[in-house]
Amino acid sequence: MHPREQTIFALSSGRPPSAIAVVRVSGALAGTALAKIAGMIPPARLAKRVMLRDQIGEVIDDAVVLWFAGPASATGEDVAEFHVHGGRAVLNTLFAALASMDNVRAAEPGEFTRRAFENGKIDLTEAEGLDDLIHADTDRQRRQALRQLQGLLGDRAREWRRQLIEASALIEAGIDFAEEGDVPEDLVTPAMEKIARLRHEIEKTLAASAQSERLRDGLTVAIAGPPNAGKSTLLNRLARREAAIVSPYAGTTRDIIEVHLDLDGYPITLIDTAGIRDTDDPVEREGVRRAQERAASADLVLWLADDDGEGARLPRPFGEGGVPVWRVRNKVDLSGLETDGAKPGHLEATCGQGAPTKHFRISAALGDGVEELVAALTKFAGEWFGSGEMAAVTRLRHRNILREAAASLAKTERLVGQGDELVAEQLRISVELMGRLLGRVDIDNILDSLFKDFCIGK
Ligand code: GDP
């Protein structure tokens, strides 16, 4: 039997041990499995308490089972659910009992979702939303994924496709209608109006999506500065854990260390760069090169220097290319605050050429001024991400297709007057692109890459 036709099972709830665990079985043999192990098949969608037994009649667990006859199930196939006690021994015995049956096997990651998709239970944008949801780290990412799962983008794409088909039908009707000569104006004009409106809408959605994609990836903040400025100490304090090695010797943080933070629901990646300085050590030089590269592509640079002004000058490539650089003077505990009367924390922002600069004075070691820095970072993240509420085009695949579709529609508009067959053909291409967004055509290659990212049991 082809693996796609086999019956699959997986733990669909969290990692054991847990109070209750849900094991799902999907496929033609789900009913047989249920009858064998639970001794009966309950009416569809009604919970039934039963004693589960393995292949030699030994009791597995006192459990609750559910039966969903296909196609009215999550996957569209026959589905059985076993709600058992979530101990490893119980689960292992149940898995063994299931696996002992011919053509019943453990599911691959994402296989349940894939079957749901293949049976028309969800479309591709919904499947991708589910994938994002499973992998969402922060609350905002989760909400974004939920919106996509609810089919916001899918709904919109379906509507666009419908309108495109309408426009296309108008043109095609015209071609049939006017056997020779041109399609009558009163068919072309409304079709082209529709197309112009559609293109505008797609472009608007695309513009909003750049920000949405950022939400998926998160904001990158590089902590840079001369060796011993206290970068690792600051990173540790921000991450509130021992992520980087703090050492009193210069140049010990040779590599780049990343820490992922959740600041008020915003996903932030903090990068601690190696001490950026001239060096003859080839290993260290490589570290310096990578640090410069990574910091240069960050969305915000925190430039750390000793409070006495040592290393305060900003080297290249920072401060170029419009990336904001905040200057953070560290070790205020050493330089004595009383002398200049300045308090740690945020100093006034100065606006030089290029990106605005903010100044902070902190003690990474003692924590003075760090709260202000975190507050400013959170505010920066909030502005950077924008509200993040409206757009739903979080995947590169969607954006690429939408870009192609917008270009295809623009081309359609340009073709008007050059032959209606050409216009009709270009429209067919646009319709197909929309279909691809929804996963109706040309999907096998994207399916494989999408579903292998899923957790087993989804
Ligand atoms: P990096 O090379 O920039 O990552 O610097 P580290 O974080 O390794 O710190 C270098 C040294 O400075 C260590 O001995 C730290 O304990 C010390 N240090 C870091 N921040 C402060 C601070 O705010 N005050 C004082 N007194 N020492 C600090």
Oligomer: single chain
Counted up, domains total 3
Structural class: alpha/beta
Cofactors, ions, other ligands: guanosine-5'-diphosphate
Radius of gyration (CA) equals: 30 Å
What is the CATH top level name of the largest domain? Alpha Beta
Strand order, sheet with most strands: 8-9-7-10-11-13-12
Largest sheet: 7 strands, mixed
Please give the CATH architecture of the largest domain: 3-Layer(aba) Sandwich
Helix content: 40-55%
Sequence of secondary-structure elements? EEHEEEHEHHHHHEHEEHEEHHEEHHHH
Q: Tell me the fraction of residues in β-strands, as a range.
A: 15-25%
Average per-residue pLDDT, rounded, comes to 76
Q: Topology, please?
A:
Layout: E1 7-11, E2 18-26, H1 30-38, E3 48-53, E4 59-68, E5 79-86, H2 88-99, E6 104-106, H3 111-118, H4 124-135, H5 139-149, H6 152-177, H7 185-217, E7 219-224, H8 231-239, E8 257-263, E9 266-272, H9 282-296, E10 300-306, E11 325-330, H10 332-335, H11 337-340, E12 345-350, E13 357-361, H12 370-385, H13 396-415, H14 420-437, H15 444-451
Parallel strand pairs: 1-6, 7-9, 7-10, 10-11, 11-13
Antiparallel strand pairs: 1-2, 2-5, 3-4, 4-5, 8-9, 12-13
What do you see in this structure?
With 458 residues, the chain is an alpha/beta fold. The protein has three domains: 3-107, Gyrase A, domain 2 (2-Layer Sandwich); 126-208 and 393-451, tRNA modification GTPase MnmE domain 2 (Four Helix Bundle (Hemerythrin (Met), subunit A)); 220-385, P-loop containing nucleotide triphosphate hydrolases (Rossmann fold, 3-Layer(aba) Sandwich), CATH 3.40.50. The protein has helices at 30-38, 88-99, 111-118, 124-135, 139-149, 152-177, 185-217, 231-239, 282-296, 332-335, 337-340, 370-385, 396-415, 420-437, 444-451, and strands at 7-11, 18-26, 48-53, 59-68, 79-86, 104-106, 219-224, 257-263, 266-272, 300-306, 325-330, 345-350, 357-361. It has a seven-stranded mixed sheet, sandwiched between helices. Strands 3-4-5-2-1-6 form a six-stranded mixed sheet. α6 runs antiparallel to α14 and α13 packs antiparallel against α14. The chain is flat, with a radius of gyration of 30 Å. The relative contact order is 0.12. Mean pLDDT is 76; it is low at 247-254, 348-355, 387-392 and 440-446. Guanosine-5'-diphosphate binds at residues 225, 227-233, 246-248, 253, 275, 330-331, 333-334, 363-365.
